[in-house]
Specification:
Helix content is about 25%, strand content about 15%. The chain has about 500 residues and is α/β, with parallel strands linked by helices. The chain has a domain of about 180 residues: NAD(P)-binding Rossmann-like Domain (Rossmann fold, 3-Layer(aba) Sandwich), CATH 3.40.50.720. The chain has a nine-stranded mixed β-sheet. A six-stranded parallel β-sheet has the order 3-2-1-4-5-6, sandwiched between helices. α5 runs parallel beside α6. The longest helix is centred in the last third of the chain and has 17 residues. The protein is globular. The N terminus is likely disordered.
């Protein structure tokens, strides 16, 4: 098996390694003029979205940098961080914040509903601000490419918030695949747990009066005006086609990360919805299976990627791993430490605490919405579905190779060979990829003129793009043939209409 080592997004920014001036790129006058700073100076960071995941990345940035302004359209959602950063100016409209605080802002974090990612990020980049944008980057393919082109035009450092890309285990996974330990990979099955957002709606979301804590006009932003619904705010928007990308954008972008990196996936030739349960014109279905076909890439053979959305062990279409009958399919997170490796990048203390609480949870307790305590839970509110030996459930992926099987878990934080006895005595290959200091630190370093971040838009947009094609396949039946160069489907005008959003008047985007 041969690998094209010159592929653009193989390097994780290491193309710059060994070429950084002693004081950092930020010490070079020409780069200072582009908005970079010396490594020893702190960035002035503004946050757009201060609750939920937006609050997590805000606090990640605050570990090492200055927080200078906060913006959120929901007072209740942002309350804890508004209080924590009480001295910083607060805004509801990000455009007003950029106008008034722009001279004091170097970079922004964007942790808001998917449909507004591109709008906020583009406005910031056009003002020369570096941007960290939560996964899955954008809601549509057209917006993703727009951000990629904007990053080049405005010469800013960028990062998509797919945190697993900075983990030791995701890079070890790629190195294992490239070593040939499981041979040629021609099939991958990846899955997510069922979400807690709305799915399978039979009628439009229920209307209600706008609560005093929410600026509904600004929450909608570029989306067409409609009545407020508690089914959208504060978290459950992700289940609706108009605002989110479902479990594919919520967890698929994580679980598929090791797959994209290890198999050096470019653009697929096709995507197809194979099955679904509870189809809806407003929301994603309750469960589904998608198939992406990728052509040969250099010395790597064609491969089919199956996405098992909201996988349940007892479902008729549940994926049963061949030859594995008496052990759980997915590894545990952080298991590389058992082999003398696996030093994960520093994790935000709040996220670490939340992970510990989840790991020690009562499996029979009712589920809490992923948006946090008090967030309305949709769908099955009973115990979380438990995994079964040999059946793929949970957040992770199984690589099917000509010489064996390999699985990863969650965002790529754990990896093992299948069956377990192959993994027990396996020695990891020597490190090949550059290791990361942490996902936020990776971006901060890039903002100061250092190595390109691991999910710089030049890297993350081609990845986000093919994942977002799956969002379209949920809505348009049949095998959709994709022409990446032309950015269009060759056999479906209905699908082509979903490649870019409809913008409310006054919110249109252009470079």
């Amino acid at each position: 098996m041969t690998i094209d080592m010159n592929r653009r997004y193989f390097f994780f920014g290491s193309v710059l390694a060994g070429a950084v001036p002693a004081a950092g790129f930020g010490s070079v006058p020409s780069l200072r003029a582009l908005g970079y700073k010396p490594f020893y100076d702190k960035l002035n960071v503004a946050a757009v979205g201060c609750g939920g995941q937006g609050g997590v990345i805000l606090n990640n940035a605050a570990q090492t940098e200055n927080i200078v302004a906060l913006c959120d359209v929901d007072d209740n959602r942002a309350a804890a961080n508004f209080q924590k950063f009480s001295k910083q100016p607060k805004y509801k409209d990000f455009r007003v914040m950029l106008d008034k605080e722009g001279k004091n802002i170097d970079a922004i974090t964007v942790g808001i509903p998917d449909h507004m990612h591109a709008t906020v990020a583009l406005n910031a980049m056009q003002r020369g601000k570096h941007v960290y944008v939560e996964k899955p980057l954008t809601r549509t393919v057209w917006e993703a490419r727009l951000l990629r082109d904007a990053a080049v035009k405005y010469k800013v450092a960028t990062q998509m918030g797919n945190q697993g890309y900075s983990h030791e285990a995701i890079r070890a996974t790629a190195e294992m695949i490239w070593s040939g330990v499981i041979g040629d990979v021609t099939e991958v099955h990846a899955s997510s747990t069922p979400g807690t957002h709305p799915t399978g709606y039979r009628q439009p979301a229920a209307e209600a009066s706008v609560p005093a804590n929410v600026n509904w006009d600004l929450w909608l932003g570029s989306a067409n005006m409609r009545a407020f619904s508690p089914d959208y705010v504060p978290y459950n928007w992700r289940g609706f086609f108009d605002f989110g990308t479902g479990q594919l954008g919520n967890w698929g972008i994580h679980a598929l990360g090791p797959v994209h990196l290890a198999l050096q996936l470019g653009a697929p030739s096709s995507v197809e919805l194979l099955s679904q349960e509870n189809q809806s014109k407003w929301t994603f279905p309750s469960r589904a299976v998608l198939k992406f076909d990728f052509p040969q890439r250099g010395g790597l053979p064609p491969v089919s990627i199956f996405w098992h959305d909201s996988a349940v062990a007892d479902a008729p279409d549940a994926y049963k791993v061949p030859g594995v009958t008496d052990e759980l399919v997915l590894p545990r997170s952080g298991n590389l430490s058992d082999k003398g490796r696996g030093a994960a990048p520093r994790m935000d203390p709040a996220e670490a605490a939340a992970r510990r609480a989840f790991a020690n949870r009562d499996p029979n307790a009712p589920r809490i919405g992923a948006g946090g305590p008090g967030v309305k839970v949709f769908g099955d509110q009973g115990p979380r579905p438990q995994p079964k030996p040999g059946v793929l459930t949970g957040n992770g992926a199984v690589f099917v190779g000509s010489k064996g099987l390999l699985s990863t878990v969650e965002r790529g934080e754990g990896v093992k060979l299948l069956p377990e006895n192959r993994w027990k005595d396996y020695t990891l290959p020597p490190p090949l990829l550059t290791r990361s200091p942490g996902h936020m630190t990776d971006w901060v370093r890039a903002c100061k003129g250092g190595d390109m971040s691991c999910s710089d838009f030049s890297i993350s947009v081609p990845y986000a793009e093919w994942v977002l094609l799956g969002v379209i396949a949920f809505r348009v039946p049949g095998k959709l043939m994709w022409d990446s160069k032309a950015m269009r489907f060759t056999n479906s005008e209905a699908a082509n209409k979903l490649l870019r959003p409809e913008f409310r008047k006054g919110w249109e985007l252009k470079l």
